[in-house]
Design goal:
- This protein has three helices and 18 strands.
- The chain starts with 9 loop residues before the first helix and ends with a helix.
- The chain has about 290 residues and is mainly beta.
- The relative contact order is 0.20.
- About 10% of the residues lie in helices and about 35% in strands.
- Residues about 1-40 and about 260-285 have low confidence and may be disordered.
- The longest helix is centred in the N-terminal third of the chain and has 12 residues, at about 10-20.
- A hairpin with a 4-residue loop joins β1 (about 45) and β2.
């Protein structure tokens, strides 16, 4: 697992250095600075400050990690409670479709943070998906839900969704489209393009979704480039996030932004991800 400070952007490091150099500032000043660090959580209620779900794939049992190239028939579905009393619900026809893996090589990028990441396979009849179900559905109107995770896609139809806790009512769906475009699913059950936001094949990129419970629109950002006022499929409570990978031959990969730091406040960040570029490329470009 990478040391915590290696994953912090330069702006945050300068904030901490400033506090440490000044003996006049009380310890509360350091705590305030730490609160400005990037959020470690995947899903947070920003209104209440409650962490709803966090993918810590480093906690995956060793015998539940795939070490081989895709497709590997190992049973390595994600386990645990998402750090907040939640659960994973995997929907796949074979073990190869949803796995925690530490594999690096070929088009497999390796984890963005730590050693393990989530690999979701693709195919004509064997695509996979996994729900991250919260302990409690978020129902209070206007509460702000923030989703943040790293995604490495190689083709179209890699998707991120918000659903209710029953996993039946679709609130929001975004997917990778052809030529680097991003599409969203409409209430009319059709696809429309998200202008001004693009994805890059074979690169780890930070995807963020912001939604206020009951609102008719949401915001999407990829590596800091955002588009707001995107219509949702349906307005209402949110109780789960769905990660999926549709038709094609190459898997998609998902990971947390960085390992969960203990005792750091959950505060979202609007700055562009400033990770070292070499850590966000596929292995053939990295070495």
């Amino acid at each position: 697992m990478r040391p915590f400070l290696t994953t912090i952007d330069s702006v945050s490091v300068r904030r901490i250095s400033c506090v440490l150099r000044s003996a006049a500032l009380p310890i509360l000043g350091l705590i305030a600075c730490l609160a400005a660090l990037p959020a470690a959580a995947d899903v947070v209620n920003l209104t209440t400050g409650q962490r709803l779900f966090f993918d810590s794939f480093e906690r995956q049992p060793a015998n539940k990690v795939s070490h081989r190239a895709y497709p590997d028939d190992a049973d390595a579905a994600p386990t645990g409670d998402g750090g907040a009393g939640g659960s994973y619900v995997v929907r796949a026809k074979k073990h190869t479709n949803v796995q925690v893996t530490n594999r690096i090589g070929g088009d497999e990028p390796g984890a963005y943070s730590g050693k393990n990441c989530l690999r979701i396979g693709r195919g004509d009849v064997t695509n996979g998906e996994v729900f991250q179900v919260f302990k409690a559905e978020q129902v209070r109107p206007r509460d702000r839900i923030h989703v943040s995770l790293m995604v490495c896609a190689s083709d179209a139809d890699v998707s991120i969704h918000l659903f209710d806790k029953a996993m039946t009512a679709r609130r929001i769906t975004f997917k990778t489209d052809r030529d680097g475009d991003v599409a969203y699913y409409t209430a009319a059950k059709s696809w429309a393009s998200v202008s001004g936001v693009q994805w890059t094949p074979h690169r780890w990129q930070r995807w963020e979704i912001d939604y206020a419970i009951g609102a008719a629109t949401c915001t999407l950002a990829i590596d800091g480039k955002s588009r707001s006022n995107i219509p949702v499929c349906s307005a209402g409570p949110v109780g789960s996030v769905l990660l999926g990978s549709g038709w094609g031959t190459s898997p998609a990969y998902f990971d947390e932004q960085f390992p969960e730091p203990p005792g750091v406040a959950i505060v979202p960040r609007g700055e562009k991800n400033t990770q070292t570029p070499s850590l966000r490329t596929k292995p053939s470009e990295r070495f």
